[in-house]
Amino acid sequence: MNGWQVLAFLGILCGTPPLSRATEPTHDRAFWEELRAQHFKLPAGAPAAALTRETLTFLPLTDPRLRDEIGYEAFAAWVYRDQLLTGAQLESLRQTLMRTARSGLGEPEGDGVFARSFALLDLSVLAATDLRRAFLRPAARAELLALALDALARERDLRGYVPGKGWAHATAHAADLIKFLARSPQLPERDAARIVSGVADRLRSARQVFVWGEDARLAEALLALAIRPDMTLGTFDAWTARLQQEYAALWSGEFDSTRYASVQCQLNALAQLGARLPPEGTPTMVRLRALLQRLLQESG
């Protein structure tokens, strides 16, 4: 039995601990750096499931090399690129990551954002994997969407890039998860309106203009809805109508910088969406493009 097989056997024998009990990686940094140098290609017999779960121990770290370039990249390689895990193993990861993504949600700005945010990013990899080979049950997809929308609504740490600690990007990572869920053929029609409303509320309540690409990532989530054959223009009507009223109110009295940030944040995301809409598409998409052009021209 080689070294990889021994590790695999011990993982089966001992069970894989939840993230709350697995706060330290089993392997040292040199081990992970070597894996990255090999583009995370695992040899035959390597315990892919155990190593993938070990990447979750990097989620809370403020070292961007370990968290982003090793932990996340290894997770994406083994889960999505190489498809090394079973549906049951993916579901186990989903449950652990959902708990992590909710931990501390709503707290003030702090280092806890990294675990929440990168748990959302890992969950987006699971949602993307589900598009390639479905493993999520309808209830699981519903739970993921509820989590993503809750993260948009309640996250108070809206930092993008943090010097010395790398990307926090909780809003962008929630948007990534929504994007892949919105691409699913199994998305219930009623959830499209929930997604648009959730994105609009996040932009409206941010109290700042996003400058680290969050509006583009949210636009990608909206685009996933806009190009669906079952999309209806009514999904966007309520938002754009309210935004027109907010824009008019913004310039009808004394200038309010907070209200300005709220309006501009929404306009930026919709401009990003308009730029991404393909030149041709369904009649509904054509009408949406015209709606956005008119809105942006009136508020230009």
Question: Which key terms come to mind for this protein?
Answer:
mainly alpha, two-stranded antiparallel sheet, 1% strand
The parts where pLDDT drops under 50 for at least 5 residues are 1-22
Number of helical elements = 13
Q: What is the average of the pLDDT values? A: 91
Proportion of beta-strand residues:
under 5%
Q: Note the run of SSEs as H and E.
A: HHHHHHHEEHHHHHH
Q: Measure the end-to-end span.
A: 68 Å
Strand order of the largest sheet: 1-2
Tell me the total number of β-strands: 2
Tell the overall outline. Answer: globular
Structural class: mainly alpha
Helix content: 55-70%
Number of domains: 2
What is this structure, in a nutshell?
The chain is mainly alpha-helical. 66% of the residues lie in helices and 1% in strands.
Describe the protein's architecture and organization:
Helix 6 runs parallel beside helix 8 and helix 10 packs across helix 12 (257-276). The protein has 2 domains: 1-187, no CATH class; 192-300. A two-stranded antiparallel ribbon has the order 1-2. Helix content is 66%, strand content 1%. It contains 13 helices and 2 strands; from the N terminus they run αααααααββαααααα. It has helices spanning 3-14, 29-37, 48-55, 64-81, 87-102, 112-132, 138-154, 170-182, 189-205, 214-226, 234-250, 257-276, 283-298, and strands at residues 161-162, 166-167. Mean pLDDT is 91; it is low at 1-22. By secondary structure, it is an all-alpha fold. A hairpin with a 3-residue loop joins strand 1 and strand 2 (166-167).
